Amino acid sequence: MENNRPVIFNNTVLRDGHQSLAATRLSTQQMLPVCGLLDEWGFGALETWGGATIDAGLRFLKEWPFDRLDAMEKACPKSKQMMLLRGQNIVAYAHLPDDVVEAFVRCSAKHGMDIFRIFDALNDPRNMRCAIESAKKVGAEAHGVICYTTSPVHSIEKFVKLGCELEEIGADAIVIKDMAGLIPPQKAYNLVKGLKQNVKVPVWIHTHETAGLGGATYYAAVEAGVDAIDCSVVPFANGTAQPDTIRMLSLLEDHPRCPKVTARQREILAEVRKHLEKVYGELSKFTSHINEVVDSDALNYQVPGGMLSNFRNQLKEYKMEDKFNEVFAEVPVVRKALGWIPLVTPTSQIVGNQAFFNVKMGRWKQLSKETLDVALGYYGTTPSPVDPDLQALAAKQANLEPITCRPVDSPAVKRKGMEDLRKELAAKGYPTDDEHCVIWAMFPQQVDEYFKAKNAPPPPPPPAATLSAAPEPAQSSGFAFAGKAHMRLSVNGHQHEVMVEEA
Ligand code: CO
């Protein structure tokens, strides 16, 4: 049936907008002045939490994650709150047990989270099922995500099939997540059409303007009957973030599905922009011109825009600038060997790292711990089988057998459940409620630092321009991504520092 309803506009400025353009550094205090305005506008949902905001907020801004959620709920009482959740990873980088996932979702819903947008870096529904079921159990909306990517083994038909599987396990909507901004309009049209013909639940789309396709892609998706699109607000819009709301409204002007927008709503967007421009200036340490402009390079290389700037920075640091093309040529080699995994947090970092190692040390001469885990099935089922030679090499190096079960069910990996976490918190003298347990499960070091900072005497006030800018921690050795939030990757107990560039 044709969709004639006005397309719903969601707004991402409080999450993906600043994650994509300002290294996730927007603080709750900087958000609050626009919350009432955003709430009044009447967006379908406000994306306010999740992705990298929980780690970055705790690490750099020393904000307790649930405090921000409370503040958003209070300041935007009319709007639905939406968050991005990495399936069994929650918002971390390793798989967590079911009781931790369940507790996290329960706590978040209690603090006002309405929509859980749930994805898995490998598009493995087994890694999304627990989060989807947990959200439904507490009466929240569970949205199942398709991570869009290009490869010889990905096709519109397979993505539609995944959408059907997600609906079957309970997803209340299917979201096309184009984290790299790579989906061209006609493909978006075909994918939305295919999903609309095969699933009963609403279909939403999320893209980035990185390569300049975003606006046209949304237009095509609206033509195909998509129910909702994600936009942001300048200056935290366009470039590597979502298309700007006003721009998208103009792109849809006179389209039968364009929502009616009042003069007051336009005024609101202008007021939001005015405040955010001031904030953008305050965050100048974390913004960069290369992220603000449309660059078709991402299309040439078929990787997220953030990966391009990360490679440039890192190769420069290692005085390997002349190897740029070589490292990029290695990305599809690594992806192919690892079963054509999509490039999204954390797999974009894993593939980027390994491509760099392959060029620096020789192909497969040094395998990262994460490469071993992907090759052995510890992240889930890859879109196509892992190269058997690489898998054999990985099994030998890791001294582990490949697995085919849901990774979190593997007995090879010891994982801490809620009661173990509670004991650890008690031993530390920290609060032992569920909220502290779930954050501790993901970010123990940041929690330690948070309590240390909280209990320390207040430092002298910094100059106004850097009020919210915590100093960058020292870079660890090895290939650390630069330019976005600096994250700790913990896989099977091994800790790795990486940069997260998109979620
Ligand atoms: Co995004």
List the helices and strands and how they pair.
Blueprint: E1 8-11, H1 13-21, H2 28-41, E2 46-50, H3 53-60, H4 65-75, E3 81-85, H5 98-110, E4 115-118, H6 129-137, E5 141-147, H7 156-168, E6 173-177, H8 185-198, E7 203-206, H9 214-223, E8 228-231, H10 245-251, H11 263-282, H12 289-292, H13 297-301, H14 305-317, H15 324-337, H16 347-361, H17 369-375, H18 388-398, H19 418-428, H20 434-442, H21 444-455, E9 485-491, E10 494-500
Parallel strand pairs: 1-8, 2-3, 3-4, 4-5, 5-6, 6-7, 7-8
Antiparallel strand pairs: 9-10
Helix pairs in contact: 2-4, 2-11, 5-6, 5-20, 7-8, 8-9, 15-16, 17-18, 19-20, 20-21
The structure holds cobalt (II) ion (CO).
Account of the 3D structure:
With 503 residues, the chain is α/β, with parallel strands linked by helices. It folds into four domains: 9-286, TIM Barrel (Alpha-Beta Barrel), CATH 3.20.20.70; 296-409, Cyclin A, domain 1 (Orthogonal Bundle), CATH 1.10.472; 418-455, no CATH class; 464-501, no CATH class. The protein has 21 helices and ten strands. The chain has an eight-stranded parallel sheet with strand order 1-8-7-6-5-4-3-2. The protein has a two-stranded antiparallel sheet with strand order 9-10. The longest helix has 20 residues, at 263-282. The two termini are 32 Å apart. 55% of the residues are buried. The structure holds cobalt (II) ion (CO).
